[in-house]
Write a structure and sequence with these properties.
Pfam families: DUF5655
Largest sheet: 6 strands, antiparallel
Protein name: DUF5655 domain-containing protein
Helix content: 25-40%
Order of helices and strands: EEHHEEEEEEH
Number of domains: 1
Structural class: alpha+beta
Strand order of the largest sheet: 3-4-5-6-8-7
Organism: Rheinheimera riviphila
Domain DUF5655: 30-135
Shape: globular
InterPro entries: DUF5655
Radius of gyration: 15 Å
CATH class: Alpha Beta
Length: 137
């Protein structure tokens, strides 16, 4: 744990801010893909496999939502009926038609895409890597 981090005394999860509001239970990612079409399961699993190769990543799952976090959240997913909605948080704006929405909150840009195939996932993998690196600082 770095000096600027705080560890929850109940769940031992580490955060960048003291007394960070959170749910101590990180959930079970298998629950979010239960009863989903095989294509959605494949896309979700490919995303999870990819981000977990980037470094130390915590996965938080609840209902149909999954967050991927290093020091901060760098990507979040919504498991939908036939696609995985991916929000990627990076320090710059990217203009690419795969993104259905881009939001600038003053600190970062959130790029949102609906990913329905492994081919579409390939288009955003480098940005997932960039988001992971961005989240470390």
């Amino acid at each position: 744990m770095t000096p600027s981090q705080w560890q929850c005394p109940q769940c031992s999860r580490e955060f960048s801010r003291k007394n960070q509001r959170h749910a101590c239970d990180a959930g079970n990612s298998a629950d979010v893909i239960r009863d989903r079409p095989q294509s959605v399961v494949e896309v979700y699993q490919a995303i999870a496999d990819f981000v977990n190769k980037l470094g130390k990543v915590e996965t938080i799952a609840k209902d149909r939502y999954v967050l991927f976090r290093s020091v901060r959240i760098f990507a979040d997913l919504s498991i939908m009926k036939d696609v995985v909605r991916v929000a990627i948080h990076i320090g710059r704006r990217i203009d690419n038609p795969i993104f259905i929405k881009v939001v600038d909150d003053g600190r970062q840009f959130t790029h949102v895409a609906k990913i329905g195939s492994l081919h579409e996932l390939k288009e955003i993998e480098t940005l997932l890597s960039e988001a992971y690196e961005f989240s470390l600082f």
